[in-house]
Amino acid sequence: MSLSAFDAARPPEGPRRRGGRRRGRRTLGEVGMGDGSREGAVVEDVEIAPGDDHGSYYGRPVVKAPPWEEPIAIYLFLGGLAGGSGLLAFGARCTGREVLRRSSRLTALGAAGLGTIALIEDLGRPERFANMMRVVKVSSPMSLGTYVLASFSTVSGVLAVLEVDEMTGRRIPLGPLRALLRLLEGPSALVQVVTAPLLASYTGALLGNTVVPTWEAGRAHLPALFASSASLASGGAAMLTSPVAEAGPARALAVAGVAGEVASMHRMKHAMHPLEAEPLEIGRAGTLLRWSERLAIAGGVGALLGGRNRVIAAASGAALLASSALTRFGVLYAGLESVKDPRRVVVPQKARLAARRAAGTTDDAITTAD
Amino acid sequence: MSLLAGPDGPAASSGWSAEGPRKGFFTDTSICIGCKACEVACKEWNHNPVDGPMEILGSSYDNTGELGANTWRHVAFVEQGRERIEEARESGRRLVSLGMPGIGPKPSGPRGAVPAGDLSSTDRTPPDTPEFRWLMSSDVCKHCTNAGCLDVCPTGAIFRSEFGSVVVQEDVCNGCGTCVSACPFGVIQRRDDGTVSPHDEREAPDERRGTASKCTLCYDRLVDGEQPACSATCPTQSITFGETEELVEDARERVADLHRRGMTEARLYGANPRDGVGGTGSVFLLLDEPEVYGLPPDPQVPTKALPQLYLRTGLAAAGMAAVAALSFLGARR
Fold first, then answer.
1. Tens digit of pLDDT for each residue in A300-356?
2. B289 to chain A: which residues are within 8 Å by CB?
3. Which of A164, A301, B114, B145 pairs with A90 at a CA distance of 20 to 30 A?
4. Mean pLDDT, residues B81-87
């Protein structure tokens, strides 16, 4: 379709050069003639995606990654650590393990506090963090998680103050508050133990309730993975901070956590489309997750066999803490990586659409012919 | 989980009176000429800053790239040769032969609200260019019936307007970013680099800095009885604004018309209320598979699976507590 008489004077175009990935060449007949008699590509070096390569718009992402960076991974780790420590603290309270109780309560408050700071740090407008408390939304794991974190942190604060007061021989000038706090100890411990496992596992729902391919595909297994990772982290922290005589339950929790983590990671990858599982295995995330698994197994074996030796227990505990942190960073990075390639969105979506159609459901596609 | 959508439409289910009809766009890409007037009008009206440094992206005439915090309308350009055109026609034909209920040409009815400068009587036949074709499509927020961003927003900054659209209150949003990962279409984004305002007010602070931003369906214009800037400016009526129900009817008629002319590649995107997002307020007529335009082929709102996910989370928490209890019960002193 020529618009100008001068188009007739255009010289015939040579074959176009195209770099990058394998792309089919168009013949002159396909792209339009130099005589202007047919419509054709006007911009030089335009990449035309032919054949099997046309399943995306110039390779651009279809969905967007959340603006979550390292502070979020740190929060995922610290939230898990805090939750697991909350469970250990309650168990220690019930069985009279005083050092384990104290160290776990202090860990719980420290981790929850630092985690909250990391969470606020990652907001686009940190000064508005209190807006999280404007509403309660069941449809938002972030909203419910905020309330879990807030209640856990509050009661952890009460319990930690009591512990520090006890440690310093009641030298904190609490005045009449001391009696009130001691009265609150029981209810606070109860609230802590109820919110603790939720704090450790809700982050799995937070990541799972997205359209980020790797997280979406792993949504059934992420809560279990994160709860396991939290178990081994808090067990490791207790092994590091408590005497071996009292840390028996912490070792057991850590070993169970290692087993749970290895199993849920395996099941999660197995349930995914290969394109969705790949980001967990390649690149930076793959490296982190491989080291995470090694450290978890090393720490678990150390806890199982040498947990009654103070040095081995401490080393194993440190390895377990590192493993949990690496898991969270690995899962976060894998998700952020998975949105970059549109194939990870388009291919699994087409596959599930085709599977539904093959199963006889033809009325739930977004694309319709009429 | 259709928390925010019922049979009366999303606006009514969110507490607005059911009187006002749902408003939205119908974007007929078969008559888009790629002039980008919608992009410009949108940027101007909404005072949206530029997207980073200006550069040639090497993707045909599209140097905008994608929808984002600063780009609420994006015109896609796709160049296709004969082979691809035939594939698109074939995939459209397969779609028709799926045997979906209600197939077949619809009797033509009167158009709904006809915007000024009615072109409906003119011949809209696309030029017959079997060797090569441009696909041009103006993409926008879908204003889903079940909107992921709205569902997961923990601050209540995102709300359903009385027009059925999904709008962010930039003075409430704290930029947590949850909505970004909940949008199956990759529309909403946090404005982190939006410090460059239009040049006449470069010193003015950007109110949307650090908050999630996306198309508002020109909420400020709608409350004054105007139509959105993009549809008002579209010179070919490729973008039409109106009541969603009437627009979908128009869209179905248009597809049937194109099919009658042998253009079986024509299909609708977002017109099915049974799809993964409950249907969209922005309906598109596409001439190829959605992924060719950068649209997801099977978008599912993440909150649809939230009940099962909460169950899994509860089980994981219970399991963790049980293991901890056993650790203490089984431990020797």
1. 999 999 889 999 999 999 999 999 999 999 999 999 999 999 999 999 999 999 999
2. 55, 367
3. A301
4. 87
The better pLDDT of the pair B120, A334 is held by A334
Q: What is the pLDDT of residues A280-296, one digit of tens each?
A: 999 999 999 999 999 99
Q: Across the interface, do A132 and B182 touch by the CB < 8 Å criterion?
A: no
Q: Does A43 touch chain B (CB under 8 A)?
A: yes
In chain B, residues with a C-beta closer than 8 Å to the C-beta of A210 are: 181-182, 302
For testing the chain A interface, which of B143, B146, B155, B275 should be mutated: the one with the most A CBs within 10 Å?
Answer: B155
Cβ-defined contact of A63 to B183 (cutoff 8 Å): yes
Give this complex's ipTM.
Answer: 0.86
Q: How far apart are CA A105 and CA B96, in angstroms?
A: 63
- Both structure tokens of B145: 């019936």
Q: What is the CATH T-level fold of the domain A70-341, as seen in this structure? A: Formate dehydrogenase/DMSO reductase fold (1.20.1630)
Cα–Cα distance, A229 to A263 (Å, whole number)? 11
B120 vs B158, higher pLDDT = B158
Q: Which of A40, A57, A66 sits opposite B132 (nearest CB)?
A: A40
* Mean pLDDT, chain B, whole residue set: 85
Instruction: Pick the closest to residue A116 from A199, A236, A229 (CA basis).
Output: A199
CATH code of the domain made up of B9-300? 3.30.70.20
Residues of B in Cβ contact (< 8 Å) with A39: 127, 129, 131-134
CA distance A313 to chain B (A): 16
What are the tokens at B56? 């040639």
Q: pTM of the entire structure? A: 0.86
Are the C-beta atoms of A365 and B272 separated by less than 8 Å? yes
Tell me the C-alpha distance between B165 and A65, whole Å.
Answer: 23
- Residue-averaged pLDDT of chain A: 88
The predicted-structure confidence for A171-211, as pLDDT tens digits, reads as follows 888 888 889 999 999 999 999 999 999 999 999 999 999 99
From the list B177, B292, B315, which residue is nearest A124 (CB)? Answer: B177
Q: Is A231 on the interface with B (CB under 8 A)?
A: yes
User: In this complex, do A367 and B267 lie within 8 Å of one another by their Cβ atoms?
Assistant: yes
Residue of B255, B298, B306, B332 to mutate, testing the A interface (most A Cβ within 10 Å of its Cβ)? B298
Residue-wise pLDDT tens digits, B244-276 = 999 999 999 999 999 998 888 999 999 999 999
pLDDT of A1 above 50: no
Q: How far is A174 from chain B (nearest CA, A)?
A: 33
What is the per-residue pLDDT across A215-258, written as a single tens digit (0 to 9) for each?
A: 999 999 999 999 999 999 999 999 999 999 999 999 999 999 99
Cβ–Cβ gap A135/B310 under 8 Å: no
Buried b (16+ CB within 10 A) or exposed e, B58-85: ebbbbebbbbbbbbbbbbbbbbbbbebb
| CB-based contact A369 B189, cutoff 8 Å | no
